UniProtKB/TrEMBL annotation:
InterPro entries: KH_dom-like_a/b (IPR015946), OsmC/Ohr_fam (IPR003718), OsmC/Ohrsf (IPR036102), OsmC_Ohr_Peroxiredoxin (IPR052707), Peroxiredoxin_OsmC (IPR019904)
Origin species: Microvirga alba
Region (Disordered): 1-22
Protein name per the record: OsmC family protein
Pfam short name (any one): OsmC
Highest taxon of source: Bacteria
MF annotations from Gene Ontology: peroxidase activity
Any Gene Ontology biological process: response to oxidative stress
Length: 140
């Protein structure tokens, strides 16, 4: 399986602008720039997209772990915070912090944590990130 996205950039790094488009159409000429990455201008940035990918991948992986163990969640809500830090003359994505809120009838905390840790370690996005990954959860 292959998934594609395209980036088009015009101008310099700081003053230029670009847009991102995915084959699915979810992103269609979505703007990104220095200001959307390092300031708060409307648009997206690579770190936000990685955070969305990590949150989505982990949450789906956990749903499969729970299903395999005989549990059906009523809700899994994950926030991922991706940290971009200076490194040498550039930057590095240093961390992805997952925060999960879960409602899973009939599961105890120890079993839930075991399955959540498996999902954290084994989702494909976790495997591709060269960064520290943390996971905190609340089971309600």
């Amino acid at each position: 399986m292959n998934r594609k996205a395209k980036a088009v950039w015009q101008g310099t790094g700081k003053d230029g602008t670009g847009h991102l488009t995915t084959d699915s159409g979810v992103l269609s000429a979505t703007p990104y720039s220095f200001k959307t990455r390092f300031e708060n201008e409307k648009g997206t940035n690579p770190e936000e997209l990685i955070a969305a990918a990590h949150a989505g991948c982990f949450t789906m992986a956990l749903a499969f772990q729970l299903q395999g163990a005989g549990f059906t969640p009523t809700e899994l809500a994950t926030e991922a915070v991706v940290s971009l830090d200076p490194e040498g003359a550039g930057f590095k994505i240093s961390k992805s912090a997952l925060t999960l809120s879960a409602k899973v009838p009939g599961i105890d905390k120890a079993k839930f944590e075991e399955l959540a840790r498996l999902a954290e370690k084994n989702c494909p996005v976790s495997k591709v990130l060269n960064a520290e990954i943390t996971m905190n959860f609340a089971l309600g």
